C-alpha cells in the first residue's frame, strides 16, 4: 500500500449530522478542519430514520444557515398520558410564543442540508480508522482508503460517530427493551400533535412526519420480535391496543427494531481527544433528547474553541473547560430520560398512582409544566 500524510488543526471522525454541525460551526475560524468518514459521500440518502429536533436545535441550525424549513414537520402540542392509570398533561407551543415545540425531520434531509454547506476539500470519505495515538504536540491518525494508508496529524481529534463501547470509562445500563420503529397513517390527521403514551412495556411515541406518524414502539425484546413478524393489519391492531383507542391507523410502512441502553462516557475529554454526540452518550429515545443533546455538544465545543485567542486547538485546559461546561446539560438529560423510563415502564399500583398525580400536577400547575417543557426545548441552556 502507498502512503500519504497531512496535517490539520482539528480532525473530526464521523461526518454525520453532529460532526458536520461542528465543522460548520468552526468554518471561517482560525482552525483548519478535516471531516473523516468511513462511508461514501451521500450514504445517508437511503437512511429511513426520523429525528425529533427541539425548537432549540432549530435555532442552532438556523444560526449556521443549515435549517431545512421545508423538510421539518412542526410539533405544536404534545399529549402525555399513561395507559393503565389516570392523569395526563398537554404541552402547547402557544404557551411559549413559539411556532412549534419541535420538528420531526428525516435523517437524510438534515444530512443533505448540512452536507451542502461542507466544502468537499475538507472532507475525506471512505477512509476507515486503523489507529490513533496521542501525545506531544499532535495526535497521529492512521487511515485506510482508496487502496492506500493515509496519516493525519491533528492538534485535536473529535470523535463524532459510533456509541460508547465497553471500556472501563463507559457506564452501561441495559433497559431490556427494544424500540420498534415504523411510519403509520393516522385517521383523522395528526393536526401537528405528538403523543407520548407510557405503558407497562415501555413508552410509545407518535411523532408527526408529513401526513404520517413516526412511531417509536418500546417493548421487551420478545415482543419486538413478535411485532416485526406480524402482517400489517395485526400490527396496526397491536398499535391501537397499546395506544388506547384514541386514534386509528390505516396503513403502515416497513418496520425495524434496535435494542435500548444507556451508554455514557464518564470523561468526554482526554489528551488531544474529545467525544461528542452519540460517541459521548447514547440515551433512551423517550422525549427525544439524545440527538438534541449531541447538537448542543457540537455547538458548545465550537464556542469553546473559537473563544480561545488562537494557539493549540487541543490544549488540555480548553478541553477540560468544555467538559465542565457540558456536565450540567449531559447529566440533566441523562437523569431526565433514565428517570422517566424507570418510573413509567412498569405496572406497580403505587407507582401508577404516583405517575397519575405527577401528570395531573403538570397539567394543573403551569410553572411546573413550563420547567419540563423548557428543559426539553433548550436543555440546560434554558436556565443560562
UniProtKB/TrEMBL annotation:
Keywords: FAD, Flavoprotein, Membrane, Monooxygenase, Oxidoreductase, Transmembrane, Transmembrane helix, Ubiquinone
Required cofactor names: FAD
Membrane spanning residue stretches: 12-36
MF annotations from Gene Ontology: FAD binding; monooxygenase activity; oxidoreductase activity, acting on paired donors, with incorporation or reduction of molecular oxygen
Domain FAD-binding: 8-328
A GO BP annotation: ubiquinone biosynthetic process
InterPro entries listed in its UniProt record: FAD-bd, FAD/NAD-bd_sf, UbiH/COQ6, UbiH/COQ6_monooxygenase
First and last residue of the signal peptide: none
Domain of life: Bacteria
Annotated pathway: Cofactor biosynthesis; ubiquinone biosynthesis
Entry annotated with the keyword Transmembrane: yes
Pfam families with a match to the protein in the record: FAD_binding_3 (PF01494)
Similarity annotation: Belongs to the UbiH/COQ6 family.
Name assigned to this protein: Ubiquinone biosynthesis hydroxylase, UbiH/UbiF/VisC/COQ6 family
Classification lineage: Bacteria, Pseudomonadati, Pseudomonadota, Betaproteobacteria, Candidatus Accumulibacter
Amino acid at each position: 500500500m502507498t502512503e500519504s500524510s497531512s496535517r490539520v488543526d482539528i480532525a473530526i471522525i464521523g461526518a454525520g449530522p453532529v460532526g458536520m454541525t461542528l465543522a460548520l460551526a468552526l468554518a471561517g475560524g482560525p482552525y483548519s478542519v478535516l471531516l473523516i468518514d468511513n462511508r461514501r459521500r451521500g450514504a445517508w440518502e437511503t437512511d429511513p430514520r426520523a429525528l425529533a429536533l427541539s425548537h432549540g436545535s432549530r435555532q442552532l441550525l438556523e444560526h449556521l444557515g443549515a435549517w431545512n424549513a421545508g423538510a421539518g414537520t412542526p410539533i405544536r402540542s404534545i399529549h402525555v398520558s399513561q395507559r393503565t392509570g389516570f392523569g395526563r398533561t398537554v404541552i402547547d407551543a402557544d404557551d411559549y410564543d413559539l411556532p412549534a415545540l419541535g420538528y420531526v425531520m428525516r435523517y437524510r434531509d438534515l444530512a443533505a442540508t448540512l452536507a451542502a454547506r461542507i466544502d468537499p476539500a475538507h472532507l475525506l470519505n471512505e477512509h476507515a480508522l486503523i489507529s490513533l495515538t496521542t501525545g506531544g504536540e499532535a495526535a497521529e491518525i492512521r487511515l485506510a482508503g482508496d487502496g492506500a494508508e493515509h496519516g493525519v496529524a491533528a492538534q485535536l481529534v473529535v470523535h463524532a460517530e459510533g456509541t460508547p463501547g465497553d471500556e472501563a470509562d463507559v457506564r452501561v445500563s441495559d433497559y431490556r427493551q427494544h424500540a420498534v420503529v415504523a411510519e403509520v397513517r393516522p385517521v383523522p390527521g395528526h393536526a401537528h400533535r405528538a403523543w407520548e403514551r407510557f405503558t407497562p412495556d415501555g413508552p410509545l411515541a407518535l411523532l408527526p412526519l408529513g401526513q404520517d406518524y413516526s412511531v417509536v414502539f418500546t417493548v421487551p425484546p420478545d415482543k419486538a420480535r413478535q411485532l416485526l413478524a406480524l402482517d400489517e393489519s395485526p400490527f396496526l391492531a397491536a398499535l391501537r391496543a397499546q395506544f388506547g383507542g384514541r386514534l386509528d391507523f390505516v396503513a403502515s410502512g416497513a418496520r425495524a427494531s434496535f435494542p435500548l441502553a444507556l451508554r455514557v462516557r464518564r470523561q468526554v475529554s482526554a489528551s488531544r481527544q474529545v467525544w461528542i454526540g452519540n460517541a459521548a452518550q447514547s440515551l433512551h429515545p423517550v422525549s427525544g433528547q439524545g440527538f438534541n443533546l449531541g447538537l448542543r455538544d457540537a455547538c458548545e465545543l465550537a464556542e469553546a474553541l473559537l473563544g480561545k485567542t488562537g494557539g493549540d486547538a487541543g490544549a488540555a485546559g480548553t478541553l477540560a473547560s468544555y467538559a465542565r461546561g457540558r456536565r450540567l446539560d449531559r447529566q440533566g438529560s441523562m437523569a431526565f430520560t433514565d428517570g422517566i423510563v424507570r418510573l413509567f415502564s412498569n405496572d406497580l399500583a403505587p407507582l401508577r398512582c404516583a405517575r397519575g398525580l405527577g401528570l395531573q400536577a403538570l397539567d394543573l400547575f403551569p410553572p411546573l409544566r413550563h420547567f419540563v417543557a423548557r428543559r426539553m426545548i433548550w436543555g440546560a441552556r434554558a436556565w443560562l
